[in-house]
Every structure is written in C-alpha cells, then in structure tokens.
Amino acid sequence: MRKQFLVIGAGRFAKGIIRELYEQKCDVVVCDKDEGPLEDIDDYTTHSIVGDLRENRVMDDLNVEQYDAVFVAIGTDAYSAILITNRLRDRKAKKLLLKQ
Questions:
Q1: What pTM does this model have?
Q2: How far apart are CA 43 and CA 8, in angstroms?
Q3: For the purposes of burial, counting CB atoms within 10 Å of the CB of 65, is it exposed (0-12), middle (13-18) or buried (19 or more)?
Q4: Dist CA 93 CA 82 (whole Å)
Q5: Which residue, of 45, 67, 83, 100, has the fewest CB within 10 Å?
Q6: Is 25 in contact with 44 (CB distance < 8 Å)?
Q7: Over the stretch 13-63, which tens digit does the pLDDT of each residue have?
Q8: pLDDT-derived band at 64, boundaries 50, 70, 90
Q9: Closest CA to 5 of 24, 21, 16
Q10: Dihedral sign computed on CA atoms, order 37, 20, 88, 77
C-alpha cells in the first residue's frame, strides 16, 4: 500500500517536499488557499484542493487521520500555521511535520 501524505501550502518549501514524495511513489494531496501555486505542481500530486484550512469546514473535509503524515509548509503567516497545526492535532493527525 502506498503511503499517503497531506501537504498544506504550495510555496517553494512545499514544492520540494511534494516532488520528493512523488519521486518516492507516494500519494500526495496538497491544499493551498490560492489556486495559482497548485497549478505549478499538478503533475506531482494525487489531488489538489483550494481551500483555507483556517475554516473548520475545509479541515473537516480532509479527514486528516487518513494520512501517514501531514506537512505544514506555511512560511509567511505564523499565526495561520499555528492555528492549523492545533486543529490538525485536535483531529488526530498521525504525524505532523512543520516548517519553522
């Protein structure tokens, strides 16, 4: 069974993670609040989602407990990164990897 990963954010740092996971034959789902960055990585992802994970509704739709790990790769908005990380913990994400 292929490993499944969720990457939150689609900036430079996230793109490196996404490409590496793709090369390792993993399923990669990426979520970003803007559609533009997702278009650049479409060839490397299993699925892309446009949505603001600060909204509970969007977070609930992701079923974060199904992923082997979740990468929080938000570099420009520390408040959002902290808020999203806390919500991922509340929803029992198996493993969280964060950009500092």
A1: 0.93
A2: 17
A3: exposed
A4: 15
A5: 100
A6: no
A7: 999 999 999 999 999 999 999 998 999 899 999 999 999 988 888 888 889
A8: very high
A9: 21
A10: negative
